[in-house]
Amino acid sequence: MRIVFAGTPEPALPSLRRLAASRHEVVGVVTRRDAPLGRKRVLTPSPVAALAVELGLPVLKTDRLDAAATETITSWGADLGVIVAYGGLVREPLLSAPRHGWINLHFSLLPAWRGAAPVQHSLIAGDRVSGVSVFQLVPELDAGDVFAQTRHPVDRGATAGRLLAELADLGADTVSDVVDAIADGTATAVAQTGEPTLAPKLTLADGLLDFALPADTVLDRFRGTTPEPGAHTTVAGQRLKVLSARRGPDAPALAPREVRLVGKEVLVGTADGTISLLSVQPAGRGAMPAPDWWRGLRVDSLEAGS
């Protein structure tokens, strides 16, 4: 079967690799345009673009699937479109151009967490089970019939970055199985059931940690916003990015938001215990162990959020 693949970031790579090595033919790859990265804002191809070049596949770089993009993609004569985190909408007439339409790999158990940031919202909500869904793409957001779902337990220490990498590998297997089933004529899709939850793109404000809340609630938000958009607080009026943290000891008892060096640990009080800051990044500085940052402050106690 002839496949067109659309994707952009790192989590799309396992699926592209799997399909390129399968019995099917990837006839073209669609990805976003080169983007400026780093302090020097150097134009850099997307991870999917780089892999497509490595695999010797035709690449179309576009931020919008407009009439020109539709003409190019249609000329490839694909039987099926596969989309994994492309970052743009597929509309008619492109949606119906492949004879089997398009399937989408989504990093949640639909209808839970429809939207751009399913993994992040799932962790913030405290979900203990996640997974992937492969569904038929339709005009409504993430609402198509589901061909397959694979569940995945969420490790208590997993950040969004780590969980997304795990789901990307798991999703490559699920996508491959669904593509094979479509080619063999054995694929079946069922309508989504249950009340949808939404997962819009996160903003910097979503990473703000409120240490007045219970410790697990704070850690869920930390994990869900790490590495992007970044978990943070303020200490002594300065923004502090929290890069690594874990549940701290129950003793000593600290007041909510109280920050103190206890032994070799920087602890922050919450509504029901402490959180240990392991690695932080003060404003305008690089990452450092939290105790080194604290010793540089030369104080006994401060309040997070102040």
Please explain how this structure is put together.
- GO terms for molecular function: methionyl-tRNA formyltransferase activity.
- It holds the Pfam family Formyl_trans_N.
- Residues 1-178 form the Formyl transferase N-terminal domain.
- The chain is an alpha+beta fold.
- It has helices at residues 13-20, 47-55, 67-75, 118-124, 160-184, 215-224, 290-297; strands at 2-7, 25-31, 35-37, 42-44, 59-61, 80-84, 102-106, 129-136, 146-153, 232-235, 238-247, 258-262, 265-270, 273-282, 288-289, 301-303.
- A seven-stranded mixed beta sheet has the order 5-2-1-6-7-8-9, with helices on both faces. Strands 10, 11, 12, 13, 14, 15 and 16 form a seven-stranded antiparallel beta sheet that branches. A two-stranded antiparallel ribbon has the order 3-4.
- Helix 1 runs parallel beside helix 5 (160-184) and helix 4 runs antiparallel to helix 6 (215-224).
- It is elongated, with a radius of gyration of 22 Å.
- The N and C termini lie far apart (59 Å).
Helix and strand topology:
Blueprint lengths: L1 E6 L5 H8 L4 E7 L3 E3 L4 E3 L2 H9 L3 E3 L5 H9 L4 E5 L17 E5 L11 H7 L4 E8 L9 E8 L6 H25 L30 H10 L7 E4 L2 E10 L10 E5 L2 E6 L2 E10 L5 E2 H8 L3 E3 L3
Parallel strand pairs: 1-2, 1-6, 2-5, 6-7
Antiparallel strand pairs: 3-4, 7-8, 8-9, 10-11, 11-14, 12-13, 12-16, 13-14, 14-15
Helix pairs in contact: 1-2, 1-5, 4-6
